[in-house]
Specification:
By secondary structure, the chain is an alpha/beta fold. 33% of the residues lie in helices and 17% in strands. The chain has a 6-stranded mixed beta sheet, sandwiched between helices. A 5-stranded mixed beta sheet has the order 2-1-3-10-4.
Length: 609
């Protein structure tokens, strides 16, 4: 492995990569505010700005490609200078924004892209089918990476790696088998658990869903909507093995490398991901964040190895296209077209393997970088699966909404005095939290179970037969049914609630204990907690709460774990403590340091379910 891959020094890193890359929720890598100048808040350098909206795994690559472009013949052909500014926007989210409007960019003028580079042409095809082909005309791949399953090496060897052919059907059978890992003589490893991303926002999630239909149908091409329909039960079983969903695999990989969540089957058995993400994990960058100047990467204790499904892999073909959108000026268009041309030059293509991507030309030898040392077989995949027609993709997404793993969610909302602080426009933090919580209820199915609590000092409620101080029950835990509007009204009533102290740890502890009592195997059991400040009034100590969660992990509670998803809702929130609690449970923390973006943050949280 090259020294460059292990210790990259990137000058002027401006990509916006907040915790879990919250679909550009207005954060810098440190969680601060984005300024109002050029993309990412960078001051105008006098050059034409070429903003590139790109999926998270390409941010580092785009940064270096932009620097190389500045010294290229393509750049020299421009009348003036141009600066490439990559910003991280999840592929599915960008597709949604472009499908909704090409008059204004949903995330603000400062980050309105001239170039869009999603992970797959599945997304450009989807935009073309909804908003018209002109919006993404000329979209063309410049890099590629196959979708694989990353498995800890010791676990992969139990499946017969590297000699045995392992397919999605084999993983399906392990998920379905009540003995789980016991089916391959590893009963101590428990059930077979997989990590998948949400196909509505993630290329990997969508590709994995389509690969399931390919595997169920036995086809290697010409997948139809009828094939998707026929694969429903196969995919339903496969989805039942998911620990939870999400926008990216980054946080799952970060949890895996963090020893506090255990290793191997105590957290997850296999992760559906792109080969480039597996590469980043193995060189010590599990969340594919923008590597800062001087940062050293530390590889994990046990690497993931790529399982290339015997039925075949789909490829993320990473197109780049100059957008036909009202916000793109003539000067930006010329510079953007030059940059996209540069991406296909030998100078650009030779950079790709250093970032875990494969060049367009299969004849190029990538084995010096992409090899067994980083869990990759450059000769794989043997079989490639083509992208199906847009109507087939739509059929798969519609089916997933019905078959995804059931969820049981307890939302715990901070209503302490600091939630009265303004976020602009006569709106308070609590107003934003109410809007975020009510707007995203559309993702909860009638058959899912949900409860909503509020916490501050001075409240008291009877929950599961026990009096709990500091908690107000907005909605008792139970199936949502047809009462979505009623629940929304109940949450809105929080605007009139009393405000006092912040018993954060006590509230999480009570919610965790309650959800443990309601947790069931075969579904995602989760707590979503939102807080804008530090704990000020709890009896429970943070260390005691973490010990309790860790004990559950160690005592075999993994068949129905309760995972904590925390939203740090201001710069004053106790991000470090929330991070510890989330990681101990195998959940995630979301940094919403810009409270005005709380609805987008809630959306990212709810994408896990």
């Amino acid at each position: 492995m090259s020294h460059r891959a292990l210790h990259r020094t990137l000058g002027g890193a401006i990509a916006l990569t907040c915790s879990l890359a919250l679909v550009l929720t207005g954060c810098t890598p440190e969680g601060g505010q984005v300024g109002s100048g050029q993309a990412g808040g960078l001051a105008d350098d006098g050059c034409t700005s070429v903003v590139v909206a790109t999926s998270s795994e390409k941010v580092n690559l785009m940064e270096e490609l932009g620097q190389s472009f500045a010294d290229s013949a393509e750049h020299d052909g421009l009348d003036g200078c141009a600066t490439v500014r990559p910003v991280n926007v999840a592929s599915g989210k960008a597709a949604q924004y472009l499908s909704d409007s090409t008059e204004t960019w949903a995330l603000g003028d400062d980050t309105a892209p001239s170039v869009w580079s999603p992970a797959s042409t599945v997304w450009t095809d989807r935009v073309a089918s909804i908003a018209g082909e002109r919006v993404v005309a000329g979209a063309e791949s410049f890099a590629k990476t196959p979708v694989v399953f990353g498995v800890p090496e010791s676990m992969a060897r139990a499946l017969g790696y590297p000699n045995a052919e392992i397919g999605i059907s084999d993983l399906h059978d392990l998920i379905a088998d009540p003995d789980g890992w016991g089916a391959v003589d590893k009963p101590m490893w428990g059930s077979f658990k997989i990590a998948k991303t949400n196909p509505n926002s993630s290329t990997t999630g969508m590709s994995t869903l389509l690969m399931q239909s390919y595997a169920a149908s036995g086809k290697t091409e010409d997948l139809t909507a009828a094939d998707v329909d026929a694969s429903e039960e196969f995919s339903r079983v496969f989805e039942s093995g998911a620990i939870h969903y999400g926008d990216t695999t980054g946080k799952v990989l970060q949890n895996l490398v963090d020893r506090s969540t255990g290793s191997g089957s105590s957290y997850v058995s296999a992760i559906a991901l792109e080969e480039t993400s597996l590469y980043n994990y193995n060189i010590g960058n599990p969340d594919s964040h923008t590597v800062q100047p001087g940062e050293e990467l530390t590889p994990p204790e046990e690497k993931l190895v790529a399982i290339y499904p015997s039925e075949g892999s789909m490829w993320s073909d990473n197109p780049a296209v100059v957008l036909e959108a009202d916000w793109v000026t003539p000067e930006q268009r010329l510079a953007a077209e030059a940059f996209v041309r540069f991406l296909h030059t030998p100078e650009a293509q030779q950079l790709l393997p250093e970032y875990g991507f494969r060049p367009l030309d299969d004849a190029v030898d990538v084995s010096a970088t992409l090899n067994a040392d980083v869990g990759i077989d450059p000769e794989q995949p043997v079989r490639s699966l083509p992208q199906p027609a847009p109507e087939v993709v739509s059929a798969a997404l519609d089916q997933w909404a019905l078959i995804r793993k059931p969820s049981a969610i307890l939302q715990i909302i901070d209503i302490s005095g600091s939630m009265d602080e303004s976020i602009g426009g006569s709106r308070t933090r609590l107003d934003g939290a109410i809007e975020g919580a009510t707007t995203t209820l559309g993702q909860v199915r009638p058959t899912d179970e949900i409860g909503v609590w509020a916490f501050t000092t001075g409240l008291s409620s009877e929950i599961d037969g026990e009096r709990i101080d500091g908690i107000g029950v907005v909605r008792p835990f139970g199936p949502l049914g047809g009462d979505k509007e009623g629940l929304q009204d109940d949450i809105r009533d929080l605007a009139h609630s009393q405000r006092a102290g912040t018993p954060l740890y006590d509230a999480i502890a009570a919610g965790y204990d309650s959800m443990k009592g309601h947790a069931e195997t075969g579904r995602i059991n989760a707590i979503v907690v939102l807080s804008d400040g530090e704990d000020t009034d709890s009896v429970m100590r943070l260390e005691s709460l973490i010990q309790r969660i860790n004990a559950d992990q160690q005592e075999g509670g993994n068949n129905k774990p309760v995972r904590i998803f925390a939203i740090a809702y201001s710069e004053g929130a106790d991000l470090e403590s929330l991070e510890k609690l989330a990681r101990a449970s195998g959940g995630q923390v979301f940094n919403a340091s810009d409270p005005s973006k709380i609805t987008e943050t809630f959306q990212s949280v709810m994408n896990n379910f």
